[in-house]
Amino acid sequence: MKKIVFLLFVLVFIACKKESPESFGKPEVASSEVRTPEDLGKEIFEGKGNCVACHQVDQKVVGPSIQEIAKIYKEKSADMVTFLKGDGEPIVDPSQYELMKTNFAITEEMSDEELKALEAYMYSKLK
């Protein structure tokens, strides 16, 4: 009887053992697919954020360039994330503020991680 219980215990143990921990619904990402905050920021900037419609890396289109924005925010030690949440004052080009406010509906829905990724992407374009 002890052998049967022992064998049953071993079978249960082996059946329950997993090769890797569960991801709890999160897709597993291979190490070669790990994205940096800058990569995520670029994806948001060009995609769901639609920032690229008004901002380019090195030239003013409708709004100031990414380089100009990043330079001014860095010089003033300002918080880009707070501004994108709609809680900060315009410091780069206040004359464009009313136009930018229409985009707060998009940025206010973004997570802090997404907003910080946008900020990291913009700072990565500083010369």
Written description of the protein model:
This protein is elongated. The protein contains seven helices and no strands. It is an all-alpha fold and 127 residues long. Helix content is 48%, strand content 0%. The longest helix is centred in the N-terminal third of the chain and has 15 residues, at 2-16. α2 crosses α7 (112-123). It starts with a helix and ends with a helix. The mean pLDDT is 84. The protein has helices at residues 2-16, 37-46, 66-75, 80-84, 97-101, 104-107, 112-123.
Search tags:
127 residues
Global structural class:
mainly alpha
Ends apart, CA distance between termini: 76 Å
Task: Work out the helix count.
Answer: 7
**How would you sum up the global shape?**
elongated
Stretches with pLDDT under 50, minimum 5 residues: none
State the order of secondary-structure elements, H for helix, E for strand: HHHHHHH
How much is the radius of gyration in Å? 24 Å
The fraction of residues in strands falls at under 5%
Largest sheet: none
Mean pLDDT: 84
**Helix-residue proportion:** 40-55%
Number of strands: 0
Detail the topology: elements first, then pairings:
Elements: H1 2-16, H2 37-46, H3 66-75, H4 80-84, H5 97-101, H6 104-107, H7 112-123
Brief account:
With 127 residues, the chain is mostly helical. Helix content is 48%, strand content 0%.
